[in-house]
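Side project, low priority. Logging it here so it doesn't get lost.
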Amino acid sequence: MDEGLTLRITGVEPGDEIAGARKVRLATTRGSIALVLHSAPEKGRAALCVSGAIGGFDGPSMLYPHLGLEMPRRGLTIARLDYRAPNEFGECLVDAMAALTFLGGIGHERVALIGHSFGGAIAINAGTLSPIVTTVIALSSQLGGAQMAGELAPKPLLLIHGGADTILSHESSQALYERAGEPKSLKILAGAGHGLAHGEVFELVSDWLLQKS
C-alpha cells in the first residue's frame, strides 16, 4: 500500500448500543473511522463488511445488518464499516486496513472480508495485504482497483453478481473470476440487479462465511 496512505490508530471510542450492536469509532492520525460491531460470544472469527462508493453501514439490500443479526449466534462477529471519505479509493482501503488491525487487536485471528460494488475492489485489495484475512466475498464488484485478484490465492474468493445488473455488468465478476486463482467460485443470479435483492444471497454469503472464515 502507498506509504502516503498509512495511518496509525490512536484510540478507540465506544459508542451507544443499538439492537444488540455497538457503535465504535477508531481515532486515527487520518480522522475518525466509524464501525458497528455485532459481537459473537467468543473471539476468534469475524467478518468485515464494506459498502459501495457512497459508503454507509448497510450494504446491498440490508445484507450487512441481516448478517449482524444472524451470524454472531453462529460464532462469527460482524463488523460494518463506514468510510471516512467515500469514493476515494486509497482512503477507503486505508479504512479497511485499520478496521482489520482493530479486529486483530481485540482477538480475532481469522477475518473474512465482504465488499459490494466499489467495496468489492476494496475487499480484494485488503485481502491481499492483511495476513488475518482468510477469505473475500465480492458482491456486484467493479473491475477498477481489483487488478490484484490474481494475488489473493490461496485465500478463497466468492464472486456474486446479478445477471440483470445495469450499473456494473456481471461481466466484471466474470473477468475477476478468470483472473483469480483457486479456490474461487462465481455465482450469477438471474434477474438480480446491482442491489442483489435476491433471496439466495444471504444463504450464499452466510454458508461461505461458515465454511471459509
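Brief comment: Helices lie at 63-70, 89-105, 118-129, 171-179, 200-212.
Revisit when time allows.
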